[in-house]
Write a structure and sequence with these properties.
The chain has about 150 residues and is of the alpha+beta class. It has two domains: about 5-60, no CATH class; about 80-140, no CATH class. About 15% of the residues lie in helices and about 35% in strands. The protein has three helices and nine strands; from the N terminus they run ββββαααβββββ. It has helices at about 50-60, 70-75, 80-90; strands at about 5-10, 15-25, 30-35, 40-45, 95-100, 110-115, 115-125, 130-135, 140. The strands form two sheets. A five-stranded mixed beta sheet has the order 5-6-7-8-9. Strands 1-2-3-4 form a four-stranded antiparallel beta sheet, with no helix packed on it. The radius of gyration is 27 Å and the shape is elongated. Bound molecules: zinc ion. Zinc ion binds near residues 14 and 41.
């Protein structure tokens, strides 16, 4: 195990070479920061390869692209949770306006929709539409339409 103050081979961004570095400190037993013994620059320990170039070098033209991990693509609908939080934190006496497409609403207004129920205006999207958090999802609602 390397200790702080010992030498380690690391890639130096300034020298653009793998050179001897001094271990400055470690986090959870992992070398975290090093100092180049050649140029004296202190930087994060990235191993012996430049991190930025790693991905580009691996890519082969024409190679079949690996499937993206499913987990990264799943969009979690957290509207029910957000709605629950907002309604619980809603100050007593907050006025709830009945939703009507002819009315104009602003961010943070609380509305009551005949079908979707209570909704929290998240933002004004255009002068004729707002994004509203209802208890099942965020919906784009029309407004200011005469
Ligand atoms: Zn250096």
């Amino acid at each position: 195990m390397l200790s702080v103050g010992e030498n380690i081979d690391a890639y130096c961004l300034k020298c653009k070479l793998v050179l001897a570095h001094l271990v400055l400190f470690k986090v959870d037993g992992v070398v975290s920061r090093v100092k180049c013994k050649t140029c004296g620059a202190e930087h994060k320990y990235r191993g012996t390869l430049p991190a930025a170039k790693k991905t580009a070098a691996v890519r082969t033209p024409g190679a079949v692209r690996a499937k993206k991990p499913v987990a990264a693509k799943v969009t979690v609908n957290d509207a029910p949770l957000q709605w629950d939080l907002k309604s619980r934190n809603m100050p007593a006496g907050t006025s709830i306006r009945n939703y009507s497409i002819t009315e104009t609403f602003k961010a943070n207004h609380v509305i009551n929709h005949p079908v979707f129920g209570v909704g929290f205006v998240e933002k004004v999207v255009t002068d004729k539409s707002i994004s509203v958090l209802f208890n099942d999802s965020v919906k784009l609602m029309g407004m200011n339409v005469s």
